[in-house]
Design brief:
Elements (H helix, E strand, L loop, with lengths): L12 E5 L2 H14 L2 E2 L4 E5 L13 E9 L2 E15 L2 E13 L8 H15 L4 E7 L3 H10 L3 E4 L2 E6 L12 E6 L1 H11 L4 E2 L1 E2 L2 H5 L4 E9 L8 E8 L5 E6 L2 H17 L15 E11 L3 H19 L4 E8 L10 H4 L11 E7 L9 H4 L6 E2 L7
Parallel strand pairs: 6-7, 11-19, 16-17
Antiparallel strand pairs: 1-4, 2-3, 3-15, 4-5, 5-6, 5-12, 7-18, 8-18, 9-17, 10-13, 13-14, 14-16
Length: 387
């Protein structure tokens, strides 16, 4: 049960690979003891019985656990994949889900887990390791940036929009939206996005063909004969992998949620969206590969997002309560940036996500590494398998 660990300083910490048959039940305890959140808010993840569900769809993945005696006291997950970064084809290792149960923190277990995972990355020819956290997560930044040599290189924003199951949004009549076949979508991304985006996945074909990828849609104006403006995005259904639940939140949020649940159907009559009940398990649609070109692209992006909202509201039985997208943050805040085009609620969104990166191949000359970590004019392709 949660909280049953007892710190024993004289016991050796063993780092080993996760064994599903042996470790699954204990991993549930580790996860429950390490909920994500702050003083006022916490977020629980239900992995639906599969502790490695969030990395299982990547080409190469592993999960390491820290064991003291016969008890699991920590874990870390990682995956390796090919991407385009700094105009080169490289392999990157993604660090995810670092957990150490409270009684065993500040004993070096977290840093040991990361270093062991980095060794696994190197054995699989990864050029870089990267991870994501939040600007105000002092413990995480202190470990990765302060101790392990990672460098902050992007500050994207996570934009969240609630799904109202009682209301279908009306799309503009002058915009046409069509679903692309996978082969066509792959071609479109490689032609228009690969050359402009960092972390564009080399296995985009594999992502788009994944059973969790619902499809790819493109939008353009009906009277735009020269197709000067267009927008594209793909949709990933996270609810088939894991579900989230808010464990605690400010009293004002809890009261507002209860009121919205009670008045939800009536709010639609006056054109308002109800705040979803996030205190019960929920999934979300993640929008990836969001890209647009042309002088009137903003309205097209908005229409595509609203199209996905309607899909979630009508086709998913209420399992997906949010539509989520991660886009460039402070580095690209222009009048027509994606942040301004994507519908979202500020109270649900997070504009202080922080990506950190570290070179792993010490034999290479890394004199230019500080340059590529500066603000980039290139966009950021967020792989849905990293969510």
């Amino acid at each position: 049960m949660v909280g049953q660990w007892r710190e024993e300083d004289d016991e050796e910490v063993v780092i080993r690979c996760y064994d599903d048959r042996r470790d699954r039940s204990e991993m549930e305890c580790v996860e429950k003891s390490c909920e994500i959140g702050h003083d006022q808010t916490s977020l629980f993840t239900d992995t639906l019985g599969d502790p490695i569900c969030r990395i299982r769809n990547t080409p190469l993945f592993t999960m390491l656990v820290a064991e003291v005696g016969n008890k699991l006291v920590g874990s870390i997950q990682g995956s390796v994949k090919p991407v385009e970064f700094d105009d080169k084809s490289v392999k990157v290792g993604y660090v995810l889900g670092l957990r150490v149960v409270p009684p065993y923190r500040r004993r070096g277990i977290g840093s040991t887990l990361v270093r062991k995972l980095e060794e696994w990355f190197v054995t699989h020819n990864a050029d870089y390791a990267y991870m994501a956290t939040q600007k105000d997560n002092e413990a995480s930044l202190g470990l990765f940036v302060g101790t392990l040599g990672y460098v902050v290189f992007r500050n994207p924003a996570i934009l969240v929009n609630p799904v109202n199951p009682y209301r279908s949004l009306k799309l503009p009549s002058d915009i046409g939206i069509r679903k692309l076949k996978v082969k066509e979508a792959v071609s479109w991304y490689r032609k228009h996005v690969a050359s402009t985006a960092d972390f564009f996945p080399g296995d985009i074909n594999r992502i788009l063909r994944n059973k969790l990828s619902i499809g790819t849609w493109v939008a353009n104006y009906n009277n735009d004969d020269n197709i000067r403006s267009w927008a594209i995005l793909s949709v990933w259904d996270s609810s088939k992998v894991f579900k989230l639940r808010v464990g605690k939140a400010p009293l004002s949020y809890m009261l507002l949620t209860k009121v919205c649940n009670f008045l939800g159907r009536f709010l639609t009559f006056i054109g308002l969206t109800a705040l979803p009940d996030l205190f019960t398990p929920f999934g979300f649609y993640f929008l990836y590969g969001v890209h647009a070109e042309g002088p009137l692209r903003g309205k097209l992006v908005k229409a595509l997002c609203e199209h996905v909202h309607n899909m979630a509201a009508s086709n998913d039985g209420g399992a997906c309560k949010l539509v989520v997208v991660e886009v460039d943050g402070e580095s690209n805040v222009h009048d027509d940036s994606l942040m301004r085009c994507v519908p979202h609620w500020k109270m649900l969104s997070c504009e202080d996500d922080t990506w950190c990166i570290k070179p792993l191949k010490c034999t290479e000359k890394m004199t230019s590494f500080s340059e590529i970590t500066k603000v980039s004019s290139r966009s950021l392709f967020v792989d849905p398998r990293d969510v």
